[in-house]
Amino acid sequence: MQESSRHNRRTIKIAAAIAAFLVIGLVVLGIVSLTYGDKAKQLVVAEINKHLLSPAEVGEVEFTLFRNFPDASVVFRQVAIKPPADAEETPGLLHARAVSLRFGIFSLFTGEYRIRSVDINEASVTLWRDQDGRNNYEIWNKSDGEEGKQVDFDIQRVVLRKSKVYYRDVASGNDLAVGISYITLKGKKSGAVVEADLSGSLMAERMLIGPDDYSLKESINLHAAVILDQDAGTINITRAGLHAGGEDFILNGLLSYGKPVNAMDLVLSVKLADIEQLIALIPERFTASLKDYQPGGRLTAELRLKGNYGGKQSPLLTAGFSVKKGSLAHLQHKTRLSGITASGSYSAKTGNRTDRLELTDFSGSAGKGSFRGELLIKNTGRPQVRMTLSALLFLDEIAAFLPEGQIADARGKLVADISYEGSFDAAARVPEKASGKVSLADAGFVLVKDGRKISDLNAALELQNGSVMVDRLSLRAGRSDLSLSGNFRNLAAFLFQKDQPLFIDAEVRSGRLCLEDIAPASAASTTGVGHPADPATGIFPERVGFNAAISCDLFTYRDFSAEKVSGRLSLDDMVLRVGSFSMKAMDGSVSGSGVLNNRYGSHAQVVCNASLKNVDIRRLFREFGDFGQTSLQSRHLKGRADAEVQYGATMSNRFETDAASVSAIADLEIRDGELIGFEPLQELSRFLDAGELMNVKFSTLKNRIEIARKTVIIPEMEVKSSVMGLKGYGSHTFGNDIDYHLNLLLSEIGRNKKRRNPAPAGAYETAEGGNTRLFLHLTGTVDQPVFRYDSQAVVKKMADDFKNQKQELRQALRSEFGKDRNTASAKDKKASEVKFEIEWDED
After folding, report:
1. CA 780 to CA 787: how far, in whole Å?
2. Which positions ≥6 away from 631 have C-beta within 8 Å?
3. In this structure, are residues 133 and 95 in contact, taking their beta carbons and an 8 Å threshold?
4. Are 736 and 710 within 8 A, CB to CB?
5. Residue 293's pLDDT band (cuts 50, 70, 90)
6. Which end of the chain, N or C, is less packed with Cβ atoms under 10 Å?
7. Strand partners, 235
8. Contact present, 241 and 223 (Cβ < 8 Å)
9. How far apart are alpha carbons 192 and 257 in whole angstroms?
10. Where are the domains of the chain?
11. How many Å apart are CA 638 and CA 646, to the nearest integer?
């Protein structure tokens, strides 16, 4: 107990002695500070004023022995160094909350102040160089050789805390902004050469070197050994260790400064770094293409920046690298490439040199699939590519890497073993060299543009330079099936260049082909991934042409259907030409040719010639939409027909026909025909039995029917039917306005039905043989017809008959007496001495 008490008393005595020592020390330091502080401040301020070439403003100057003990300090608060007198338009060099100049405490007693350390807190340092080479940082007059001075600036340590450093060289365009948490610079100076060690934490918030932005996104912890040669204007980084984004880097090299154009040779290396963390460090302009992807794996790389910078010049960036356990995942899809290994090199574009990426060996997996190859890409702006690839891939597992915005829901198996060399830019004029084979099995996809589904796609392809030979290709699109073999010219350029065409020379076979399934504008869906058909969207795919021999068991388009279709089709510059075709259709046979011109963008022109043999006339009208009119329709007709048809019209990209544009000429012969329930004919019920008019039968009818300006034009014709012998002509508009001129024998009217209203004398004409014909005029509309007797037609008929009789008489006299008598010999003419001619008045 007593021993413990003695120990406590001893501890108290020691503590009291230490406290007393500290108090005495503080008192002594206070006395020294009061005694020498003002003198030290005056000497330091005077010496600074002797060397400083730019005006400075200071809020307060104080002397302290306590802040940086065992050093004494002269502290300047609220410091602002103004621009030099010859560059007043430039920004000031320094704005700081506090600047401390430190020197040894014994300097107070010797009277010789050697300032070796500077501490700068919460400062903004701006280094500026203008277009003419003037700067704001040469503000210190060295005054070497001065003896007997009491204050000497021998700076060996500089500390910056919570500061910003800016550097702007207007001539070169270089612009840097560095945020500093803390940084310590220690070194020694020998003449113009400074050897320094640098350590601290900073962030390159802005790093514009010439036209390029190298700004980083993460803070950097660094430890570096640097040699600064002020006379040569060079910074030699002998070795620097950088820690950023959780990765360690090594930097070394040489950098010059202070001239309009400076040199650079810096090497940055990293080993087995996390690729995702590295991507976060790289300036965004270099990673914009990866914004939709998440890369992973380990990277070993060495990057080198070498060349001049400033004056619109940029150094050359080159890199050698290798990847292990790499991956690439699409952020919006489940698509992921994994197990990637690769080695290669990269050089960026600079001056007249194009960029270049080379993968000497790469391999990896995509789900159940795998790939391996080599790749060289020159000039990514106008890429020239050399590639070898062996792959077994499943399309649903690489969907995100397929052409964006063009296809969706891809599936199927792809096997490829190919080599390719060429350019994806037509202006490069590099010939394509390609070889190898590609196969697709059980593939399918949806075209995003219009929602069409392609399924059961199987193919065996062979690359032959710029062409792809199709040994076999089969697919289903909607209700249609297609199989083809042939040659796809310029396929690679078409897939990767927006201005390159594709031309197909093929033989096409189909069991069933529905035109709606292969024409984009008509097949678009209003739901799902597709969009409604856009009237401005062309019927045919852009940049696609073909020349194809077609064979189809069943062809359909809307109401039309045909069997055993064969022909040759060609598509060039949005114009589809049918050189020749034949088919079994409408219970007969059809042959012909045609053109569908879609160059107009929002609509198309159709022109065709067709020869129809023994077709069912009702099916003809029904399946061709009554040729765009509603007057004489399929329900009115029965019989078999031969026809030579010329047809032209304008249609929209939805295959909707513009009725006003329809023009057609049809040389028509109908056999065993029937006219059933034709409304205008029912008006003759005033003269004939209405029941008989409901179904008028005739053996043969020949005429030329014309359609123009929404009007069906029927030239004069004679119909010998089961009801009567009828002559007539007229027109019938698509709006059902009618204008028919008819005439028939009065004897047939009397035979069939007693007239309720006898015709006036001017409405009929008696021909030779005592046969009298009644002339009728039918106008109005189909729903509200207007019937009247046609006296004018009688007058015209009599005038025509009289004129014809005169013509016959005149011809007979001329043959007998005039110069048309060609049978007489020249000798007979001379003997007869005929000297006259008979001239006839045409009226």
Report:
1. 8
2. 712, 732, 733, 734, 736, 738, 782
3. no
4. no
5. confident
6. N
7. 228, 255
8. yes
9. 15
10. 10-138+151-171, 712-750+758-816
11. 22
Query: 374 CB contacts (<8 Å, ≥6 apart)?
Result: 359, 360, 361, 362, 386, 387, 388
Whether the Cβ atoms of residue 95 and residue 123 lie closer than 8 Å to each other = yes
Assess whether pLDDT exceeds 50 at residue 798: no
Buried b / exposed e along 624-661 (16+ C-beta atoms within 10 A): bbbbbbebbbbebbbbbbbbebebbbbbbbbbebebeb
505, containing H or E segment: strand 502-514
Distance CA 72, CA 65 (A): 5
Q: What single letter denotes the amino acid at residue 803?
A: K
Helices (H), 664-756: 690-693, 746-752
Tokens read off for 225 = 């050994």
Q: Which residues pair with 31 in a beta bridge?
A: none
Number of C-beta neighbours around residue 250 at 10 A: 14
Is residue 594 a contact partner of residue 606, using CB atoms and an 8 Å limit?
A: yes
Ramachandran region, residue 348 (left: φ > 0; alpha: ψ -120 to 50; beta: rest): beta
Burial label for 96, CB within 10 Å (0-12, 13-18, 19+), is buried
Closest to 677 (Cα-Cα) out of 693, 689, 688: 693
Are residues 164 and 180 in contact, defined by beta-carbon separation less than 8 angstroms?
A: yes
Element (H, E) at 369: strand 369-378
What pLDDT was estimated at residue 805?
44
Higher pLDDT, 731 or 33: 731
d(CA 191, CA 86): 27
Query: In degrees rounded to 5, what are phi and psi of residue 678?
Result: -75, 110
- Using CA atoms, how far residue 752 sits from 690, 693, 698, in Å, is 10, 11, 17
Residue 457 identity: L
**Could you report the per-residue pLDDT of 304-330, keeping only the tens digit for each?**
999 888 777 788 889 999 999 999 888
Q: What is the enclosing helix (H) or strand (E) of 269?
A: strand 262-274
Confidence (pTM):
0.60
Q: What secondary structure does DSSP assign to 177-202, as a single string?
A: EEEEEEEEEEEEEETTEEEEEEEEEE
CB atoms near residue 524 (< 10 Å): 20
- Cα–Cα distance, 747 to 724 (Å, whole number): 10
Q: Is the peptide bond before 283 cis (omega within 30 degrees of 0)?
A: no
CA 776/CA 790 separation, integer angstroms: 5
Q: Which amino acid is at 239?
A: R
Pairing type for strands 544-557 and 502-514 reads parallel
User: Within a 10 A sphere around the Cβ of 404, how many other Cβ atoms?
Assistant: 9
The token pair that represents 43 in the structure block:
């000497």
- What is the spatial distance between Cα 302 and Cα 317, in angstroms, rounded to a whole number? 11
What pLDDT is stored for residue 839 in this prediction?
37
**Which residues are CB-neighbours of 693 under 8 A, at least 6 positions away?**
681, 682, 684, 685, 723
pLDDT band, very low/low/confident/very high, at 494 (cuts 50, 70, 90) = confident
Residue located via tokens 């060429």: 422
